[in-house]
Structure formats: structure tokens, C-alpha cells
Design goal:
heterodimer, A: alpha/beta, Rossmann fold, 4-stranded antiparallel β-sheet, 8 helices, 14 strands, globular, B: mainly alpha
Chain lengths: 282, 223
């Protein structure tokens, strides 16, 4: 059980902003923290970890981590933290990286076997690939058996195949350790696969909080298909207008009426949806 | 050939490097981590010996260490140590003179360590002291070596401050650089040639080994 009520003034790219977050997190939850860059996600994680100060209270299992009078230092908070850039100790081997946190050889061995890193345990971090480094970093974060595992965009620097592989590993680690987890992520498929709750931050405030299905699915009402995309171009071909829309990594051509074309501007975020037709999936 | 001045030079340099390493380590760490407004003032103060003429530095140190100043009086009355025209005084003077050459490489070394790596160590439950010795220092070996060697070499090479604070007492404060100066003054060019050639040789070998070591380290860490 984690209760968070914090306030902090932030100086970001868009001027000053107030981070004002009130959350109640149940034990064992896997939370995805989403939102545009500069919305305060990383700062929230860092405040939870004790790497940055803030006003307010943080209570974890009847223990006060932060109130207006005192704050428990980062060393005494039972957390694990995974950085986007791994932050491994370059002077230690893979195994030493884990044992540095907690000299429990059995647990280290178990974690390394779970993540298929066993054969690499005597290597130094500079001889590992990005995916391997991040797996070491995740194992390292679990060595202390933390109350909360914080992950700051852990997979965003990896290629899609490696990302899927690590998502599965995160999922199995979560199943085994039941660690309450908060992960910053922008990837809807990743959030859907891993999290049971999504919290969306905007300008330092929670604007959406619910299950991944409720928060992420764009279809509302009676549409069968609905995609959000960016309008790249509108071309007039004879009497019709053709719009080019980028959806994810794909470009799509759609016919629009002249009235619609007049109301649209290049760069607009548009919703592409359709009703009543029978799609073929092949 | 009397090699005593060399022995004094190297003894002085080794002691200075050792003492300065202990003093500069916490200072460099503080400078690398602080966001305080005092930082530029401290940095400027630390760097002063680089730009000041050795005579200015020597004059102030001489004045501060002499019996006329409270510091000099305190040392002589309490410990019975005369700091002016003595080897101890030379060590004190060299520590001031070479301070930036120890602090700056160490500070750069600490700054080159990624902040996240230090934070990961705090999160692992390690104190600042443990983090400095087990995470930061092992990851900045080239910076440590550079700091120690450059400080050592710079102390061997100092002349003005040493002459002003230590004078030239044979066997006590007459270091190699001062000895060469006196040889030239006495038109003893043969000895001056031998001494100077030794200085050039040693300095080159020392610097060469630093660069070779650093190149190897960088290769090892894939930089």
C-alpha cells in the first residue's frame, strides 16, 4: 500500500509547472506512467526514490518516507530503480553489479538464470549489448527485494524484437516477485501487455487513471476501427481530395470531401475511423 | 656528482602529491557535485596558483609562514616547527602551488562519471563515502593517475616559490631546479647540462607512461 500526496514546482522547457500528484497504489500493482515529455513522469519517479525532494507525504506500508518534517534518505528506501541508460557499474562484472547491491549469491544466480545471463556473469558491462545491459540493470534492481520497482523508460532504447523479449521477462519477473512496479512508458502495446493500471500525466497533474483498455483504446461509440494519426498532405486529384495520414509507422491514403479538406490543416492530429464493413485479416 | 638536490626534489614531490591527493579528493568531489553559488568562487580560488607569478605566491606564503604572522608563530610556538627556509615550509608552499593540478583532473574525473551511476549506488543503499571509493574512483583511474603525476611533475619543476620560501640550503631545501640555476650562475655548464638532461629524461618518461596508460584504459572501457 502506497499513498502519495506530493507537490513540487518544476522549471521545464515550457516555463514553471506545478507537479501535484495524489495517488493510492495497491501492493503488487503494475502501473504504467504515461504522458508527454516534460509532464513530470521522471520527476515523480525520482521523488519516490528520494533522489529529489518535494513537499507532501509518501507513505509505504505504514512507514513514512516523506512528510513535511523529515525525509528518509534514498539509501534507506526499499526501492529498485532501472534507468533508461542502464547506469551499470562499469568497473564491476555482471555478477559483481548484482552482488554490490546485496551479497546474496543464490538470488543473483537465480535472477541471472531467469534472464539467461548466466553465461555472461563474468563479463564487464562494456562488452554487453544494450538488451543485455538492461537485463542486468533489471536484475540489479531486484537484488534488494524492493517494495517498489521504478522503471524509467527501461526499454525505449532497444529495438522492437529485444523490447518484446524484455517485456516478457519483466512480466515473468513480476509474476514471480509480485513487486509493486511503476514504469514510465510511451508504447501502448507495451503498456497493454504489462500494466494493469495506466496513469497519464499532463503538466504535472493526473489527467487519466484506469485500466489500459479504458485509457488506451481509441474506439468509442459505435466505430469498428479508429486510428489516431497525423495529417501529412492533402492533394486534389480531379474532383476529389486525397489525404495522406501517418498512423504509427504506416502511411494511409484516404478520400475526403472538399468540405472536410477545407477544415483540415497539415500537421493536424486526426482520427480515422470507419463503421460497418467487413475487414479481412490476412 | 652530487645527486642530493634530485632526492630532495623527488621527496618533496612525492610528499606534496600524497598530501594534496588527500586534501583535493573531498574538494574535487564537492566541486563536482555542488550546485551552490559559491562554486565559481571556490574554483577561481583553486585555480589562482596557475595564473599568479610564483613570486607573488612565494611572497604571500613566505609572509604567512614567517614568525611575524599568526600562522608561523602558532607552528613555531606549539610544534616547534620553523616553516620558513625549511623542508616542511617547502611542502606547505608546494601544496598551495600545485593545488590546481591535483583538484582539476580529479574534478573532471568525478564530473565524467555519469550521475545515474552514482545514483544507482545510493539506491543500492551505499553511502557517499562507499560510492566514492567503490564506484566513482575505480571508474576514473586515468583522471587519478593524471592528477598524481601532473602534481608530482609540476612540483619537481617548480622554481620561484621554492627559492623564495625555502632558499637554497644544501641538503635541506636545495632542489634540482634551484641547483641548476646556481650552476648556471657559477658558469658550471657541465653540471648544468647533466642535471638538465636528467630532468628532461625523467619528465618525458613520466609523461609518456601516463599517456600510454590512459590510452590502454580508454581502449579497455571502449572509449
Amino acid at each position: 500500500m502506497i499513498d502519495i500526496h506530493i507537490k513540487k514546482e518544476l522549471y521545464g522547457a515550457n516555463g514553471t509547472m506545478n507537479l501535484d500528484v495524489n495517488l493510492h497504489i495497491k501492493e503488487g500493482e503494475f502501473i504504467a506512467l504515461s504522458g508527454k515529455s516534460g509532464s513530470g513522469k521522471t520527476t515523480l519517479l525520482r521523488i519516490l526514490a528520494g533522489l529529489e525532494d518535494a513537499k507532501g507525504t509518501i507513505q509505504v506500508d505504514n512507514k513514512l518516507w516523506l512528510n513535511n518534517k523529515k525525509t528518509i534518505p534514498v539509501q534507506k528506501r526499499e526501492i529498485g530503480f532501472v534507468f533508461q541508460d542502464y547506469a551499470l557499474f562499469e568497473n564491476m562484472t555482471v555478477e559483481k553489479n548484482l552482488l554490490f547491491v546485496n551479497n546474496d549469491k543464490k538470488l543473483a544466480q537465480h535472477l541471472l538464470e531467469l534472464t539467461e545471463l548466466d553465461s555472461l556473469k563474468n563479463r564487464y558491462p562494456n562488452r554487453l549489448s544494450g538488451g543485455q545491459k538492461q537485463r542486468v540493470s533489471i536484475c540489479r534492481a531486484l537484488m534488494k527485494k524492493p517494495k517498489i520497482l521504478l522503471l524509467d523508460e527501461p526499454l525505449s532504447a532497444l529495438d522492437p524484437t529485444m523490447r518484446t523479449k524484455l517485456q516478457n521477462e519483466l512480466l515473468s519477473l513480476h509474476k514471480e516477485f509480485h513487486t509493486t512496479t511503476i514504469m514510465v512508458s510511451h508504447d501502448p502495446s507495451e503498456i497493454y501487455r504489462l500494466a494493469n493500471r495506466v496513469i497519464v500525466l499532463q503538466n504535472g497533474e493526473v489527467i487519466n487513471d484506469g485500466s489500459p483498455k479504458d485509457v488506451l483504446l481509441k474506439t468509442q461509440g459505435s466505430q469498428k476501427f479508429s486510428f489516431e494519426g497525423e495529417l501529412l498532405d492533402i492533394k486534389k486529384i480531379d474532383v476529389i481530395y486525397v489525404a495522406i495520414v501517418a498512423i504509427g509507422q504506416q502511411l494511409v491514403e484516404v478520400v475526403v470531401s472538399s468540405a472536410e479538406a477545407k477544415n483540415l490543416q497539415l500537421g493536424d492530429k486526426v482520427n480515422l475511423s470507419t463503421k460497418a464493413f467487413t475487414p479481412l485479416i490476412s | 656528482m652530487n645527486f642530493e638536490p634530485f632526492i630532495i626534489s623527488f621527496k618533496l614531490a612525492a610528499l606534496t602529491a600524497f598530501i594534496l591527493f588527500c586534501i583535493a579528493l573531498p574538494l574535487a568531489w564537492y566541486l563536482s557535485q555542488t550546485k551552490s553559488r559559491a562554486k565559481p568562487f571556490l574554483e577561481a580560488l583553486t585555480a589562482l596558483p596557475i595564473v599568479l607569478p610564483p613570486s607573488v605566491l612565494g611572497f604571500y606564503i613566505l609572509w604567512a609562514l614567517s614568525y611575524n604572522s599568526p600562522i608561523g608563530a602558532f607552528f613555531e610556538d606549539t610544534f616547534g616547527i620553523k616553516l620558513v627556509f625549511s623542508f616542511s615550509g617547502l611542502v606547505v608552499a608546494s601544496c598551495f602551488y600545485s593545488l590546481p593540478f591535483m583538484v582539476q583532473p580529479l574534478q573532471n574525473g568525478f564530473e565524467s562519471i555519469h550521475k545515474n551511476m552514482l545514483e544507482a549506488s545510493y539506491i543500492a543503499g551505499k553511502s557517499k563515502l562507499q560510492t566514492i571509493f567503490q564506484v566513482a574512483l575505480p571508474n576514473m583511474k586515468p583522471a587519478i593517475l593524471t592528477a598524481i603525476i601532473v602534481t608530482f611533475a609540476h612540483t619537481v619543476g617548480e622554481f620561484g616559490v621554492v627559492l623564495m620560501v625555502g632558499g637554497s640550503i644544501p641538503g635541506k631545501t636545495k632542489v634540482a631546479s634551484v641547483a641548476i640555476y646556481e650552476m648556471v650562475e657559477n658558469l658550471d655548464y657541465t653540471s648544468a647540462h647533466i642535471y638538465s638532461a636528467i630532468m628532461v629524461g625523467i619528465s618525458f618518461v613520466v609523461l609518456l607512461s601516463v599517456y600510454i596508460f590512459n590510452a590502454r584504459q580508454n581502449k579497455r572501457f571502449g572509449l
